[in-house]
Design goal:
- With about 500 residues, the protein is of the alpha/beta class.
- The chain has 2 domains: about 280 residues, Rossmann fold, CATH 3.40.50; about 190 residues, Glycogen Phosphorylase B (Rossmann fold, 3-Layer(aba) Sandwich), CATH 3.40.50.2000.
- Helices cover about 35% and strands about 15% of the residues.
- Strand 3, helix 1 and strand 4 form a beta-alpha-beta unit.
- The chain starts with 6 loop residues before the first strand and ends in a 25-residue tail after the last helix.
Amino acid sequence: MAGTPREIVSHPHGKIARFSVKILFFVDTLGGTRHFPGVVQELAERGHTVVLATARQDERSKRGAYDHPRIDIVSCPTQRTDRWSGMIDTVRRVSDGVRFFDPRYAQADKLVARAEAQMPATWRALFARRPWLKRRWALMQRGAGLIEAVTPCEPQFQRFIERHAPDVILVTPLVDFGSYQTDYVKCANRLGIPVLFLLYGWDNLTSKGLLRVKPDRVLVWNAPQRDEAVAFQDMPADRIIAAGAARFDPFFAMTCSTGRDEFCGDLGFDPARPVLLYMCSSGLMAPDEPEFVWRWITALRNAPGESWLRRCQVLIRPHPAYREHWDQVESRDADTRVWSGKLKMNADQGLFDTLFHSTAVVALNTSGMIEAAIIGRPVYTVALPEFAACQGGTLHFSHVLGENGGIVHLDVSLEDHVRRLGDAPNRAAETEARSREFLASFVRPQGLDVPVGRVVIQEIERAGSMGKRPRRIFSSRRRPSLVGPIPNS
């Protein structure tokens, strides 16, 4: 139990006591904490102790990333070593895969293919030989849930938690396929320690694995994700909090660091001419994007009348993990450049400046669309058959579409797209109003002026005073005979 309360503070759920608590934060790598910028440091400065438990042995060498006496970095076990290890690993990987046989994923071919690739080879072959089994996905999930329920805590994982004696456990990403973090949630429930799952991405609940063991609280971004947690993860609604997206807090606080002349000069652009930004998707979702971009640029140059698109300067910003293959596009158009500066996943000053100096943004599907909305730039996309998998083939993309209250203007042909894009400079006031409304519901539901990190910290402190009883786990020292042998290769 947490120590003596230091003060009483206000909270949306009423007044709570603020304790000095010890927090054990399970994260695959220190890089995962970038989705919650400032949260770990602020917790330490508020008098809490934070232990970052990472999956990689070399993470401790990055101690300088969190130079505070109340923050420690340790390596945690990630592999079960008991007699249940092989079986439960197989069960989890299969159950994470069969969820994508749900009819709601009927159009999500790439998600289904990726999920099947995560399954053991024996199971992939079984589904290939007997495709009718896929229709029994719900029954298989229930069976996997039964096996999970009787699987005991891994002793070394439980000892790891007991050794650090936390008052609260945080965990992310948790929904990776076959995630080892499931066992830490299970052990925390067994020990009576509150668990908060911190969601970091807008697609995490629908494109990845399952919440096989339920945490006490799930901090999602917004109401649509709360609905997804209930519908796709079977999470009790009263355990879900729409806290907002902390990863965008630094972007809300940024200001442009370069003047127009300097920015354009570095790119070889004319400051007097408009800049149109194209933001790339990942190579996984859109492998043929470079060829499409060249067709798109050609369509711009052939825009009807005196459209600004005929003379605009195009800046292509590659996905941070997929920078190759873009030089060929740049070389084919004299007024096109590929961003060559440093690329970061979050809190990228270069991205902020690029958006600030752009008239409009075009993208297929990327979280950069949300960052464009923060700066008030209009976002456009085009739905072509070759990119159906990265748009309509994902469940999260619909959240940002204008028809659903989002900020993305969608057209189904290049011709319609170019016509609508040509009118972008005349709709600045409309874009700003649309962006603010979207951000207030999707990114900062607790208030546009309220940093999400502050909300996350309040929920962590609230969990520190949560009374939680240890939960008994029904288990056997042997594998339950009711499931029989489970192939694991």
